[in-house]
Amino acid sequence: MKSLVRMVVGLLVMTMVGGTISGVEAKAEREASRFDKFRDSFGTPQIEPVQREKAMSMTGQRRIIVVDDGEAARVGELETVEEFLAARFNSCVGTQVDSYFVGIQTPSYIASLGYAPETPYITRTRKALIKAARQAGMEIFATLRMNDIHDAWAPKLSDPLKVERPDLLIGEQYWPDGYPHLLEGEEAQARGGYPKSALLRAFWSAFDYAQPEVRQYFLDFIADFCGKHDYDGLQLDYFRHPLFFKLGEEEENLDTMTEFVRRVRQTLNEIGEARGRPYLLAIRVPDSPILAIRTGLDVDRWLKEGLMDMLVVGGGYMPYGGRLKEFIDMAHHCGVPAYPCINHFQEPIQMRSWASNFWALGGDGVCVFNFAGVPEGSEKQRCLNQMHDPDALLGLDKQYRPDNGYGTFYCGHTNPARQFPIRLVDGTPAELVVGDDVERAMQEDMLDEMRLRVNVSNVDESEGVVIKINGTSVPTENIEHPEAGYFEALLAAPPLRQGINEITVLPGRGSIGRLSSTVTGLELSVRYK
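Below the sequence we write its predicted structure tokens.
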């Protein structure tokens, strides 16, 4: 099945540059039409389909990338190579997964779990995984956390360089003998001596890349590891974890990190030349250019200098919003394919919804983070044969929600503002991205219903609301108030459309205009026959 899909993709590229196969031409025309519609819906000029195919052809077509970020941690828990492959990898075999990224981790994370960073068993397992991926027709990358902070929660620092040189860290540890976990009161609110609500509660143990010793430490690790292991490429995971300089010093160190990435690129080029085939470079970054700049990453410059072969976009915690498109378009204009990221912990219906949005935003495929260990035959595994194609996704049920911030200190500077709560009297619209071509689905009589749920607070049972979709009011008879706390509305297409939608909720009939009345959330359920 996978070889057939790849053959069709290859024919599509041939047709777009001058082939004459009518069925593939028709598909290309549908693609062009689909992206034309998104120019209007998303506001930003969309890259032309031919350019998009050129970008993808640089490193081959990838529909789904699966990332097993925990390989190095989990390998010590399993007794044989066969057990490891069965637990972590085999559920991807025979699916539409094209690329498998496996975490190599940093010494600090592995040591914090009590494992040796490199053992003969781990080396054998990595070789077996590389072989298994190639036998399954997948490329395989190593992925490295660029600033692991798991040891911020450990009893003590474990990375040898951190222990020897605590002056190389972003923050300080005020508990020299290890900080207590079981204290009560104010002391229990601290990590490394910082308040619970402070970013440095998590990031005090992060390396400060402004220090040349830190950059050389990672460069030496990359050169040694990639020189020993025959992966197809390496991913620099800058979302694990997204703070690389002391607060207030990020922008003045943009050139510092860019030079580091240049040296990584040079190192991989040298390894590739020595082995006779390229050592590719992928880079995972925060959700948008401004969030990346705030963590010290000038991704725009990296793209323009051609320092990477692919871009993985976002942490996967806030995947519904349209802001991912800015990085997708930026990558495409530099001829680099872009893969928005899904975090693994959601239910299959949400994963399908996110994937639908990613294709709509112009993504070249889907990256699924920490998806390893999924049971074979499960609904989650079936997602690996659904998320690879927007046409395959169209007839499957979805749930779309507006992103509403991710306020944890664990994500550093990458916390977008929350959309909710919104006061009813303000009438501030919420952004809702809908990846499905709902107009096409309605025309082809595929839809069962589209139901919008509006969660509210401090709205009396006798009060109504006005709901507007892209400026058009939903008929009053289509709005229900089943019980206190929410309203439901049956929608049609149009006014609901594929792409970005504006959902506005205002006081309705019987309302007294309470200033305390708010919208606390939205959810659109799209059900198919």
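The chain is about 35% helix and 20% strand.
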